[in-house]
Amino acid sequence: MNSPALRDLALLFLKLGTTAFGGPAAHIAMMEDEVVRRRGWLTRERFLDYVGATNLIPGPNSTELAIHIGHARGGWPGLIVAGVSFIVPAMLIVGVCAWAYVRYGTLPEVSAVLYGVKPVMIAVIAQALWGLGRTAVRSLTLAALGVAALVAVLAGVHELLVLASAAVVMAALAAAVRPRARHLAAVLAALAGTTAAGMQAAAAAATFSLTHLFLVFVKIGSVLFGSGYVLLAFLRADFVERLGWLTETQLLDAIAIGQVTPGPVFTTATFIGYVLGGTPGALVATAGIFLPAFFFVAISGPLVPRIRRSRIAGAALDGVNVASLALMAAVSWQLAGAALVDLPTILIAAVSLVALIRFRVNSAWLVLGGALAGWLLSAVG
Question: Is pLDDT of 199 > 60?
């Protein structure tokens, strides 16, 4: 693969890793804006297929989507370049926050910046949902399935159950489910569970060391589906309850930094690694939690075009895509409640939405503008 393509991937994902606030839904929206609308690297259909695929494997969805895009654009070198470029800026920012935390005992003040950034991310997500929804919802059946998935998520049904049910419904409508395929899925699930259990036992058997730290984060990155709240549950079980390496307060501070800094929420691992083992610990923890994402995308990415060519598997992927958008809509609704808290934030969101749709302003500039607006409003307030 030629170096200009790799350079373009590196520059794009370095920028996104520095400016992509708001969690996976916002990251996906920004990637859609850059990769589909602006650069035309992927069609909306192909982009949606990759979004659906990331929901079927464990790990950080937005990072896995970046890795998929890198592979589609630049082959195996692109897979590495895109993923690393998206992770490194966030890792460095979180690392600086962790250094300040260890040195001064408190978190950096970021509330003023986030006050202006959050409404921008609501506008970015809304614009992406509209564009992706028009592509994904190609029939009344898919529309009804999307509404049902949204209602189920808002009612508290687990997201994996929603995704699996959507896939099964669409596959069943396309054709009868083949027993052979069911058997293969069961074998793979059992194998994954056995592997995860083995890694848990290996991690539990060791005393504290960088190797132990690495194994714990590899395990988490290999088995974790879901949001940052699910990540909190895994981290608490391992680092607070089982190992006793962190206090509850330290864990909550780590999660807060992962949530409020740009890039993948999984860089929470960077913070924990630094607190426990300094710079080597930060590097080892970051590598451990993200390494499985590269592996899972590497083995699943080449299958996505084949899935699309199969009538039954393609129908299942259509169901997953619609359910994925329902999950994204549910997250954006919850985020909107926390972001649009007064007239200034509502105005920031409205202006950002107009800028995106009418003038096609780059979302990264809007994020920076929102950060500046939040700082100014805080200063004058």
Answer: no
